[in-house]
Amino acid sequence: xxxxxxxxxxxxxxxxxxxxxxxxxxxxxxxxxxxxxxxxxxxxxxxxxxxxxxxxxxxxxxxxxxxxxxxxxxxxxxxxxxxxxxxxxxxxxxxxxxxxxxxxxxxxxxxxxxxxxxxxxxxxxxxxxxxxxxxxxxxxxxxxxxxxxxxxxxxxxxxxxxxxxxxxxxxxxxxxxxxxxxxxxxxxxxxxxxxxxxxxxxxxxx
Length: 206
Description:
By secondary structure, this protein is mainly alpha-helical. It has a single domain, classed as yeast vps74-n-term truncation variant domain like (yeast vps74-n-term truncation variant fold, Orthogonal Bundle), CATH 1.10.3630. Helix content is about 55%, strand content about 5%. It has ten helices and four strands. The chain has helices at about 5-10, 30-40, 65-75, 80-90, 95-105, 130-145, 150-165, 165-170, 170-185, 195-205; strands at about 45-50, 55, 115, 125. The protein has a two-stranded antiparallel sheet. Strand 1 (about 45-50) and strand 2 form a beta hairpin. Helix 2 packs antiparallel against helix 10 (about 195-205), helix 3 packs across helix 4 (about 80-90) and helix 7 runs parallel beside helix 10. The radius of gyration is 16 Å and the shape is globular. The mean pLDDT is about 90.
């Protein structure tokens, strides 16, 4: 499952099927784009190559169409800084959040309900269908607090922190450990293993 999909399972209200974020100024499409970039980092297809900039290898196909689309979009902007990379991917893959939710619905993780009183994109709601899928996403977040979730887990922590959904899924001790891990990204150099994650976090917080 994509990191962005894990994030959406954490961010969705399981009953209403709407995305509810504590940080209301957060652009969900940008956070989801960050999730795709982090998946490319996990696959070693996206790396920092200069201070503040990212380089993609679009020559190797991924098993997921959205990751291929994100890599192709980034290849058209070689050496983009993280902020521009996020915006470009979100724009080229729009409506990214809707596509991710539809993918979760097609795989029976979510229901899809339309409020027929409205004819807008937000008339669609996605109540939770698979409690196990949400629990798996929450478990990955919790494992990441102990450094056991790998790069994907740390990336999910970044997304959850930026969007303000960590407190819903972590207790006080886990939240403290998560904050220490995230603060540790402040000192990561551009050429280190986690440099790409650090660049994306900085761009999300800017």
